[in-house]
Amino acid sequence: MKEFRFLLTFILVTNAALNIFLSGCAKEDSFIEKTLPPATSTVSKETSTTKADYQIREKDVLFIKVYPGQEFGEGLEAEVNSQGEINIPLLNKVKLGGLTMVEAENLIAQKLDQSYIVNPSVSIRMKEYDVRTVVILGEVKKPGAYDFPKSGRLTIMQAVAIAGGFTDIAAIDKVKLIRKISGVQKTYEINVKNIVNGKQDDVEVQPNDLITVPETFF
């Protein structure tokens, strides 16, 4: 009888622990985005996500084109100073720090339209980012924070390579990409196996992203 009670207690405790574990997993999964992050197709020099969400900062180098606008020629480069300003023809100093590139385009177009050019078309792309980092943690051989390339282009596979590659116990089908979009933190699960096998395009990383690689459970 005692053995039966012990066995029953063991089963109940084990079942309770399993339920807690599974509910924890379900809770974690509920915070994972169901779709991949924007701009996960073939990496380009500039993505719609970057234009919509990236905020211009000191030491960023912008390439600006204005049409019509002879003063701007084929386009000009402008570096953002410590006050968040750039110097451009006709307008002299314009403060763009803290704005997205779309907002900056609209601001410059508005200022030019007020006094100089009727209904101008303004295009801005990022030529060089200020030095920022991407953090890679978990089952990579050299976890840590790494400088983001000046070109502003980095993918999941490139980031993992910078961190020395995966360890032997990395769960490469459950890599997490954590990113803030418009002030909201979002978590994406990336199956790197699909990238390696050519079933999915590599995923572009943005400055200040966090990549975590969990341990696989056998």
Automatic annotation (TrEMBL):
Residues 134-183 form the Soluble ligand binding domain. It comes from the Bacteria. Residues 50-126 form the Polysaccharide export protein N-terminal domain. Keywords: Signal. Gene3D superfamilies: Outer membrane lipoprotein wza domain like, wza like domain. It holds the Pfam family SLBB. One of its GO terms (molecular function) is polysaccharide transmembrane transporter activity. Transmembrane segments: none annotated. The keyword Cell division does not apply. PANTHER family: POLYSACCHARIDE EXPORT PROTEIN GFCE-RELATED. This is Uncharacterized protein. It comes from Candidatus Danuiimicrobium aquiferis.
